[in-house]
Design brief:
Layout lengths: L1 E2 L15 H10 L4 E3 L6 E3 L2 E6 L4 E6 L13 H12 L13 E8 L2 E6 L6 H5 L10 H5 L3 H6 L7 E7 L3 E6 L13 E6 L3 H10 L4 E4 L2 H9 L3 E2 L6 E7 L9 H10 L2 H8 L31 H10 L5 E8 L3 H15 L3 E8 L1 H10 L6 E5 L6 H9 L11 H12 L4 H18 L2 E2 L3 E2 L3 E4 L3 E2 L16 E2 L2
Parallel strand pairs: 1-10, 14-15, 14-16
Antiparallel strand pairs: 2-3, 4-5, 5-7, 6-7, 8-9, 9-10, 11-19, 12-19, 13-16, 13-17, 13-18, 20-21
Helix pairs in contact: 8-10, 14-15
């Protein structure tokens, strides 16, 4: 593999939120359940079967003989420890607010019962992903330091860590005692750090690596023209430009609505995404619960004159704003630069501050934005509730919105157990509400990355999360 980055958060599954961390963690760890490539179906994993006992209670039967990489068996107590660890408010897991656990109990030598405080539609999906539901060994976690957990691993996944050279390579080997018999087919995978995309493309073209991910659609087209496999362009990468509505000029809804009408989303899609983008709400349209926005969405239509009128009503004809942008994401930077140009036409001076990715993450999660607007791009989240939780969760340090109505809608969406269509409709309603209040500028959603792999690699299927969840099915012809 040629990788653009190594995991900033390390190998602890409950801390893996960024795409680079998920890609590695998904080979080391697993949940009780797993998900299909398109994330529409929940399947067995460490639990061989499960039963819903009531609206709030589930029983899971652990797979016989499933082992951690150190050879110890997966016990019910490990499941209890793992899920309580993720949901512990004292932990720094980005998934802790997504769980509404009343209890996790070992009910037998191979069974675990999970009860939530209220019906939670997202529970099985959370348990189906290696990051939001990753099962760890209680004995191993409690006998290792935080730094050791970050730089080593002891999961149940198809590959185990053989060597970690920070800034260079992550070497993995086949886990011989993996529960899914005969898999993985590969003897190992080496993740080589190749930060420049052009260099990664050349490495794949020349055969010095077998698989990479590219961000630019032009590079995907180039590789495809050479006969190299290119995965589907999942439009999961919603561009979020979140605004501080608690203080400063963006506390005025008229100013926020003016900004939303001041940006030309169609031009941004054509220029910044080379036509690959689509109109989006906060939850990306490629998510199983997402829906596309449209020009008729509240304040999505480009209307500079109306924007100027709103700014005049707010007494902000000449407005200066600052924006924090991830420096190593060319699409985010080019989008911000074009937005700066567009907003200057309505009298807004946008100062763009490009900073490393970890500084953007720290600003969002810590709440110290030091800017009026902060931007990130989505990758597939554990559940649609997580996209909203990142920006709008009540009481979270990074939340710059005070809206009990929105919080009530978010809670209702997670309680819908009458089917996917009903949940999707609710998230569309929430997206419309956020647009109506202009809590976020969402110019588009576009593919985050394109999985690309050599012709000699067979059996691999790109998944919606772009984390190579199905790498264990891949094999190579010589």
């Amino acid at each position: 593999m040629g990788e653009d980055t190594q995991p900033v958060s390390g190998f602890d599954p409950m801390l893996a939120q960024a795409l680079d961390a998920k890609r590695i963690v998904s080979q080391f760890y697993e949940g009780l359940l797993s998900v299909s490539a398109d994330f529409t179906e929940v399947q067995p994993a460490l639990a061989s079967e499960w039963t819903q006992l009531s609206d709030t209670k589930y029983s899971f039967t652990l797979r016989a003989g499933a082992k951690f990489h150190d050879g110890s068996l997966v016990e019910p107590s490990d499941v209890v420890f793992s899920l309580n660890r993720i949901a512990d408010p004292a932990q720094n897991s980005p998934y802790k607010r997504l769980y509404d656990l009343k209890s996790v109990t070992a009910t037998g030598p191979d069974t675990v019962e999970i009860e939530t405080n209220a019906p939670q539609a997202s529970l099985l999906t959370l348990l189906g992903q290696p990051w939001s539901g990753g099962i760890v060994s209680e004995a191993w976690i409690t006998s290792h330091t935080a730094d050791q957990i970050k730089t080593t691993e002891n999961g149940t996944g198809p590959f185990s860590l053989a060597e970690f050279q920070e800034g260079a390579v992550i070497k993995t080997v086949r886990f011989e005692d993996y529960w899914d018999e005969q898999k993985p087919y590969l003897d190992g995978v080496d993740y080589r750090l190749i930060s420049a995309e052009a260099t990664r493309v050349q490495a794949l073209s020349s055969g010095s690596v077998d698989m990479i991910e590219v961000r630019a659609s032009t590079n995907a087209d180039t590789l495809k023209a050479k006969g190299i496999n290119v995965g589907p362009p999942f439009s999961i990468g919603t561009a979020w430009y979140a605004m501080n509505t608690l203080s400063g000029p963006l506390s005025d809804i008229k100013v926020r609505r003016a900004l939303s009408m001041g940006i030309d989303r169609d031009q941004l899609i054509q220029v910044a995404t080379l036509g690959e983008g689509v109109l989006s709400y906060t939850v990306p349209p490629a998510d199983p619960y997402g829906t596309e926005a449209s020009e008729d969405s509240p304040y999505y239509k480009h209307d500079p004159d109306a924007a100027k009128s709103l700014l005049a009503e707010a007494g902000q004809q000449s407005l200066a704003l600052s924006m924090l942008v991830r420096s190593d994401n060319p699409k985010a930077v080019s989008t911000a630069e074009l937005m700066k140009q567009q907003l200057s036409e309505i009298g807004v001076n946008l100062e763009i501050r490009t900073v490393p990715f970890n500084q953007v993450v720290n600003a969002v999660t810590g709440g110290e934005w030091n800017a009026d607007i902060v931007t990130l791009n989505a990758s597939l989240n554990a559940d649609p509730s997580q996209y909203l939780d990142l920006w709008f969760a009540q009481g979270a340090p990074g939340t710059k919105v005070d809206d009990p109505t929105l919080w009530k809608m978010m809670d209702e969406a997670d309680r819908i157990t009458t089917g996917n269509a009903d949940r999707s409709a609710k998230y569309a309603e929430i997206g419309n509400y956020i647009a109506e209040n202009a809590y976020q500028l969402v110019p588009y959603a576009s593919p985050v990355v394109y999985d690309t792999w050599a012709r000699k690699v067979h059996g691999f299927e790109a998944d919606l999360s772009a984390t190579r969840l199905l790498l264990k099915n891949a094999w190579i012809s010589r």
